[in-house]
Amino acid sequence: MAVAAAGAAGPVFWRRLLGLLPGRPGLAALLGRLSDRLGRNRDRRRRRSPWLLLAPLLSPAVPQVTSPPCCLCPEGVHRFQWIRNLVPEFGVSSSHVRVLSSPAEFFELMKGQIRVAKRRVVMASLYLGTGPLEQELVDCLESTLEKSLQAKFPSDLKVSILLDFTRGSRGRKNSRTMLLPLLQRFPEQVRVSLFHTPHLRGLLRLLIPERFNETIGLQHIKVYLFDNSVILSGANLSDSYFTNRQDRYVFLQDCAEIADFFTELVDAVGDVSLQLQGDDTVQVLDGMVHPYKGTVTAVGSFP
């Protein structure tokens, strides 16, 4: 089985895209920083660099194929050959692929994978809910981190969580407050990144209330990764997706290349996102685009 992620062409497309943004310095600066982060390892890992994910947006349209729409027969295989020219390709044995059948199975598998993780837990979602099941997931992360500190040998376990800023900040009890105990207890091992769209700034940010401001732009990646195993899904981290809201879930077990790919992708988006602090403020990294004030040249915090 071949697993392919959406890809992009070379740096020339970045320059072309940035050239289409006159009068939008904030967005141009964010795209520039994201391009720098995603392109760092392109020579070393060219076949699976995360910045290739933008290919469908930046590449010429693929000509329509008029052959019969049957992808199960050998005659239909040629219809997909063009994909390998645009995107990274990963070979995965069918024995490493498992399709989950229910929200409960998805929830229990995530908890089980968190408990046995030794090196990394990477979770990207729109938001983390605030109910008892979501708290159970946070408690599971806390228990695993605690065990890593008590291990005979120092653990290098890192937890990286990427959410959307506006959705994750909605209400007094929200994704941020759910994750604060992890940051406070394990500041060296936990990173919580909150992507904030650069389109929501100035008067627009002040005038548009909660919920409505989420229509301006959101972070919507859904990846749940534990060491070298990955769950690809459309499900958010909330109780309805753990109980009765059916979604798709594909579990890729022991697929190091795919896990590395998505770790780099989440890290790249996290690098241009706000960083949650232990006092429930968010920090702007040096040189990134401040969602309210534009590009900044020093580290700072705001509520």
Describe this structure in words.
Strands 3-9-8-7-4-5-6-10-11-14 form a ten-stranded mixed sheet, sandwiched between helices. With 303 residues, the protein is α+β, with helices and mostly antiparallel strands. Helix 4 (103-116) packs parallel to helix 5 and helix 5 (132-150) runs parallel beside helix 7 (175-185). It has a domain at 97-284: Endonuclease Chain A (Endonuclease, Chain A, 2-Layer Sandwich), CATH 3.30.870.10. Strand 10 and strand 11 form a beta hairpin. The model is unreliable at 1-12, 65-72 and 295-300 (pLDDT under 50). It has ten helices and 14 strands.
Provide the descriptors you would attach to this structure in a database record.
303 residues, alpha+beta, Endonuclease, Chain A, 10 helices, globular
Ends distance? 46 Å
Read across the widest sheet, the strand sequence of neighbours is: 3-9-8-7-4-5-6-10-11-14
The name of the CATH architecture of one domain is: 2-Layer Sandwich
- The name of the CATH topology of one domain is Endonuclease, Chain A
In CATH terms, the superfamily of one domain is Endonuclease Chain A
How would you summarize this macromolecular structure in one to three sentences?
Keywords: ATP-binding, Lipid biosynthesis, Lipid metabolism, Mitochondrion, Nucleotide-binding, Phospholipid biosynthesis, Phospholipid metabolism, Repeat, Transferase. This protein is α+β, with helices and mostly antiparallel strands.
